[in-house]
């Protein structure tokens, strides 16, 4: 055996194999660089979303129009204005276990006497008005009170007030029991 030629082959063979693997790796890696263009699917989905939103708006308008017509017809037939939900203090006391005054905002988890005063100063004096208020408006009232009141989360206040306004005391109590101090 010729050992001088063998040492040359020990260097040449691994170099050739390495070069071939490098070239193949480069060619395979370069061919896999494909960018997926989803712009047509995105446009299609945006169009579908727009159509669905338009249909939803039309349905909402139709429902509100028919509800307003129905309520107006019923109140007209009865000869009275559209009635609001009657407040029954006895039912509220029986469910909540404490005396509740009508439009007492403190019945809502997270609202105490100071925050109730701030809300009333801002023109939110009833359960109905707070149920229609936006969370952003409630947060503005809290922000106006300084850093001390910014820790409160008004996200559930309109919903809780709606339940109180509609006299859904069992539902309100259940919701308050299931949630951590009125936080969503």
Mind explaining what this structure looks like?
The protein is mainly α. It folds into two domains: 41-83, no CATH class; 89-178, no CATH class. It is 66% helix and 0% strand. The chain is built from eight helices and no strands. The chain is elongated, with a radius of gyration of 34 Å. The chain starts with a helix and ends in a 6-residue tail after the last helix.
Describe the secondary-structure layout.
Elements: H1 3-31, H2 39-78, H3 89-96, H4 113-121, H5 127-132, H6 135-144, H7 157-165, H8 169-178
Task: Tell me briefly what this model is.
By secondary structure, the protein is mainly alpha-helical. The chain has helices spanning 3-31, 39-78, 89-96, 113-121, 127-132, 135-144, 157-165, 169-178.
What labels describe this entry?
184 residues, mainly alpha, 2 domains, 8 helices, 66% helix
Provide the helix percentage: 55-70%
| Total of domains | 2
| Radius of gyration (Å) | 34 Å
Span from first to last CA? 85 Å
Write the element-wise H/E pattern from the N-terminal end onward: HHHHHHHH
How many helix segments?
8
Overall geometry = elongated
Low-confidence stretches: 78-83
Structural class of the helix and strand makeup? Answer: mainly alpha
Output mean pLDDT.
Answer: 83
Roughly what fraction of the amino acids lie in strands?
A: under 5%
